Amino acid sequence: MLQEILKQMEKPEGVVEKDSANTGTAQPLHGRTSVGVGLFAGQGVDRDVMSSHYRCDGIAQALPMFPSVFTDPYYATITGFTADSGNEPATPCYDAPYAFMKSCELTAQFGRVIRDTKTIEIDEAILRLNRGDMTDLRLLNFSQGQKNSLPTGISMDQMLNIQTVNEMLIAGVSLSRRIAGHYWTGSPANNNAGGGYMEMPGLENQVVTGQIDARTGTACPALDSDVKNFTMNNVNGTDGKSIVEYLTMLEYWIYNNAEQTGMLPAKWVVAMRPGLWKELSDIWPCQNNTFHCNPTTGNTGQIDATVMMNDRNAMRDGMYIDINGRRYPVITDGFMTEWTVVTKAGLLPGQYAGSIFMIPLVVTGNYPVTYIEYVDYTKINGDVAQLRGKELFWTDDGKYLWAYVDNEGFCYKLKVKAEQRIVLRTPQLAGRIDNIKYQPLQHLRDPNPASSYWLDGGVSMRTLARPQAVWVTR
Fold first, then answer.
1. Coil/strand/helix, residue 89
2. Cβ of 14: how many Cβ atoms within 10 Å?
3. From CA 391, how far away is CA 3, in angstroms rounded?
4. pLDDT of residue 134
5. 432, 337 in Cβ contact below 8 A?
6. Contact, 424 vs 206, CB < 8 A?
7. Average pLDDT over residues 368-379
8. Could you give the maximum distance between any two Cα atoms of the chain, in Å?
9. Crossing angle, helix 274-290 and helix 243-260, to 10 degrees?
10. Residue 466 near residue 264, CB atoms below 8 Å
11. What is the structure's pLDDT at 29?
12. Which residues of 345-359 are buried (b: 16+ CB within 10 A; e: fewer)?
């Protein structure tokens, strides 16, 4: 990727646009610039650098990604056959009852997220403070985030030593975090009128009831998801409702749908926030193994605590849950909606509420039914070839489009954009349980900067007194 950018800089005539709106001066990594001293310019900095950037693996790790250039796709489903019309024939030659086949079409919509690097001044990018300002730093760990959501080809060591690479990484992290949130909560209602920013419909807006035909708006209840309300009861069962009863019924309803419509064998994934998973896995082995057990008078049901603890640990280690005798992989995602005492009535400080989703992955024939599509920027080659240089270039098999922008003479920046959508072909095989309350001893860190549980710290710019010299006052 860096080599592509350097090629752009070799072509002064290759300008995409003249952007007079400076998005900010790039933070220096080394040397001294007009805005401060390099972040790693301090003498005595050890060569090995660690990262505490908090990632989110999330739902994207379970979903395949496919290229597309279609803005308005339609996905047809036969929803059933009408009841008979007409009377039974009086004689063999009389008209007999007849029926109609019915169908419903769903659609999907791309979102669009664009990010800029800050403006880089090439002279300042290559300067070093002194011989103590080393550029051989090595990054020992870096949590990049959701699979397929961060542009690849960025060397983690180069990011500490080359300013352009660092700016690309910052833009990539910002882009991927916003898209990770859209996978769940995205809503076209939040789109900018001019189309510069658009949200894909997220899974929280697709796994719903009230499905309609994409062309006519006709109701399609045969495609409705199974949506249950836990009514702010505690997941541990102390408020009366049993999460085992709700989750086993959800799974049974969905599995029966798949079985009776010829969709088996199929695969699903169970998704929830990390904190909810911790609380659910605490109680699931014991409550699931005793659910609806009713020993007769005089008999005693016994549970081996060690076995239950081992089952709990195995669930967490393997990230799975057994429901109705079937095992499902579990995905935790910190970008799913979480309600707090501030955002939801009925919660107390330290209490939270979230949802548990069952998302279909593939159905009979290993056919994918929930997946991510992205605008295939590899298709721009024919148009870009008509330009004077390679002002635009794509990476990651066409998932990301980059543009080199000349910002007056020796300054430049990069723009990156991605247009993606989640396609849910079989919402009738998906379900959710909402308003599940849980009360952990401690809330986990959050990957979303909008959360009060998101942590960073430190500085983004350093200052250092300039050295003294006789000519300073002359």
1. coil
2. 17
3. 14
4. 83
5. no
6. yes
7. 94
8. 118
9. 90
10. no
11. 82
12. eebeeebbbbbbbbb
